[in-house]
């Protein structure tokens, strides 16, 4: 890529502005996509129709029919003479999974028209571990050059818990808010978790990981009471990966818990949060209603703080980042800049995170 183009590619990486491209974004759970019933999603401000054909084939198309702009997601996915296609609800135009038009019912036999030249944008889509990812390229011709993420601890069967909501925030603010290690005693004050008075000095070891970093496996802090329900001697590792995937993998002997939080930008002001938990630990059978209620409370407390933060962000203040409590937020910004630079310059990604021990009080 030319130097000028590389500079343009970097412009969308200012904190709180723009989005990363040429990367996989979490879109939906596999179970969300029912055969023949497309659904509308908005990702990075663009309408995306996601659907599954009768054979199980996945569709990811721009959710605008090029004829009269009706949403394709309001139609249905059907079999036609060339395989499977989504049928527009307005005039029945059909589009295959590759985005090409396969039928225009209003044409008569003597009206010659090369309908194959009519297309809607196709997004590469992949299904992995019961999750659906969409590749958002910088242009329509961009194709994935890497597989979607794979997570540890996805045990057999469906997730034990799924919770979803939308934060009224740019993905940058949502990401650093959820990874922030110092807000817990103030935002999450439950008797079964901790209180503002229960604060200890902490030192955690971090290492670079693929397109991100991890707080390496360790015993949970003594003032984090919720781990007690797992019994035994739990060990946990918390990992972040671009563009917005954060997961905690807990092991208790042979038992596992994986709590995955997926952040997907809806647009510049909204971020969809999907929290998914898998586990083979018996606590998630015996105590599931209580664990689910706690997880929902946590997420909504974070959302409330986002609303409060927005009151200040309306005035576009300069944000003050400190060490070590804000080091993860700084790493996130460095990772974003390096991702944009590497893609713009056509070179391999070089993780800027270096191993470190971070110290803070919470």
Automatic annotation (TrEMBL):
Entry coiled-coil feature ranges: none
One Gene Ontology MF term: 2 iron, 2 sulfur cluster binding
Domain of life according to the entry: Bacteria
Claim: rRNA processing is one of the keywords in the record: no
SUPFAM superfamilies, alphabetized: Bet v1-like, ISP domain
Keywords: 2Fe-2S, Dioxygenase, Iron, Iron-sulfur, Metal-binding, Oxidoreductase
UniProt xrefs under CDD domains: Rieske_RO_Alpha_N (cd03469)
Domain Rieske, first and last residues per copy: 25-134
Name the record gives this protein: Putative phenylpropionate dioxygenase
């Amino acid at each position: 890529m030319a130097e000028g183009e590389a500079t343009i590619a970097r412009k969308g990486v200012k904190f709180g502005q723009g989005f990363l491209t040429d990367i996989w974004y979490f879109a939906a759970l596999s179970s969300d996509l029912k055969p023949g019933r497309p659904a509308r999603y908005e990702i990075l401000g663009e309408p995306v129709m996601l659907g599954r054909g009768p054979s199980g084939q996945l569709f990811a198309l721009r959710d605008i029919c090029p004829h009269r702009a009706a949403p394709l997601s309001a139609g249905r996915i059907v079999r036609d003479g060339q395989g499977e296609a989504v049928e527009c609800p307005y005039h029945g135009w059909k589009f295959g999974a590759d985005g090409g038009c396969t039928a225009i019912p209003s044409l008569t036999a003597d009206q010659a028209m090369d309908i194959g030249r009519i297309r809607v944008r196709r997004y590469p889509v992949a299904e992995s571990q019961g999750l659906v990812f969409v590749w958002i390229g910088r242009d329509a011709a961009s194709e994935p050059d890497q597989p979607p993420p794979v997570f540890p601890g996805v045990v057999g069967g469906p997730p034990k818990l799924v919770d979803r909501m939308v934060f009224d925030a740019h993905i940058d603010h949502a990401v650093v808010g959820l990874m922030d290690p110092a807000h817990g005693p103030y935002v999450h004050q439950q008797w079964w978790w901790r209180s503002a008075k229960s604060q200890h000095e902490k030192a955690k070891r971090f290492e670079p990981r693929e397109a991100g970093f991890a707080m390496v496996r360790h015993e949970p802090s003594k003032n984090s009471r919720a781990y007690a329900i797992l019994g035994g001697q739990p060990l946990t590792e918390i990992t972040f990966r671009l563009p917005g995937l954060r997961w905690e993998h807990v092991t208790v002997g042979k038992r596992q818990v994986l709590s995955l939080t997926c952040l997907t930008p809806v647009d510049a002001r909204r971020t969809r949060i999907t929290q998914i938990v898998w586990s083979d630990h018996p606590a998630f059978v015996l105590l599931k209603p209580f664990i689910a209620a706690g997880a929902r409370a946590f997420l909504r407390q974070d959302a409330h703080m986002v609303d409060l933060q927005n009151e200040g962000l309306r005035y576009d203040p300069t944000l003050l980042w400190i060490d070590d409590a804000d080091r993860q937020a700084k790493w996130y910004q460095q990772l974003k800049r390096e991702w944009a630079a590497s893609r713009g310059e056509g070179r391999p990604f070089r993780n800027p995170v270096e191993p470190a021990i971070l110290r803070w009080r919470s």
